Amino acid sequence: xxxxxxxxxxxxxxxxxxxxxxxxxxIALVVKSLGNGFFDAANKGAxxxxxxxxxxxxxxxxxxxxTAEAQIEVVNSLIAQQVDAIAISxxxxxxxxxxxxxxxxxxxxxxxxxxxxxxxGRQIHLNPSDNALIGETIxxxxxxxxxxxxxxxxxxxxxTATNQxxxxxxxxxxxxxKFANIELVATVYGDDDSVKSTDEAKxxxxxxxxxxxxxxxxxxxxxxxxxxxxxxxxxxxxxxxGLALPSEFKQFIDNGASQAVALWNPIDLGYSAVYLANDxxxxxxxxxxxxxxxxxxxxxxxxxxxxxxxxxPFQFDKTNIEEFSKIY
Length: 328
Ligand code: RAM
Fold this sequence. Notes:
328 residues, alpha/beta, Rossmann fold, 2 domains, six-stranded parallel sheet, elongated, binds alpha-L-rhamnopyranose
């Protein structure tokens, strides 16, 4: 009798202990590549949202190299693990569509954030800010310090990256009308890889002796370019600007390789992506015009492609980078 009671109690305890693991909702945060401080910050926000919502495990994952092929492998493995949702920052808008459609067919909710997937491959896309505004901002960051105008070049991430390509397109559209004395001489791709970005920055400097600014709309590329300008003794001759994580970039505002850069809050971006994924898991349907509330960040409303944008980009220079470098 005693033994049965003991067994029953032990089983009950075991079930209780095991229960949370089974009951847990799993949301995978799939990033362009691991080892990127921007995505580490997004993951910080994702974990914060998970803790706030309760019962959620965020699986932070991604390939080592920022390619769509490598992300497809990650997605396929998440499908096999039967996660509840995938929130992805894509290295290509189209290449991931079949794998993500397969995920959706199996009941996995799919959100893209930061760098989008084409509408047929996801339910919601969350942009950090308005694409046209970001495109104009990255040119303005260079133009503000070039009153006489001059040559600039763009050092981007992967050549297929949805977000950078949208910003570059918007930047090119703004150039003739708003920045007539700025000449964009080249666009090169460093694949969000430090070594490749460094080589590409060196290549630009060698090919364009009159280059006045390198605009890198990637937190990886901007650091590489600023380091090259520093190492080659070109501070004051070539201004490096673009989108930078203050904690990684402060040293280059301090040493003068850059006058100013911009970014949004990557922590809020990851946080919001998890909120949206969780809403879909809970049964909410994405539809144009629908508003979703995203905890402490506020709310977003979906446009006619079920995409939404968060806040305006924030500018960092020597007056404020110190303060922001402590946050992200
Ligand atoms: C890199 C990535 C990311 C982009 C930032 C600005 O970390 O390419 O997708 O949003 O830069």
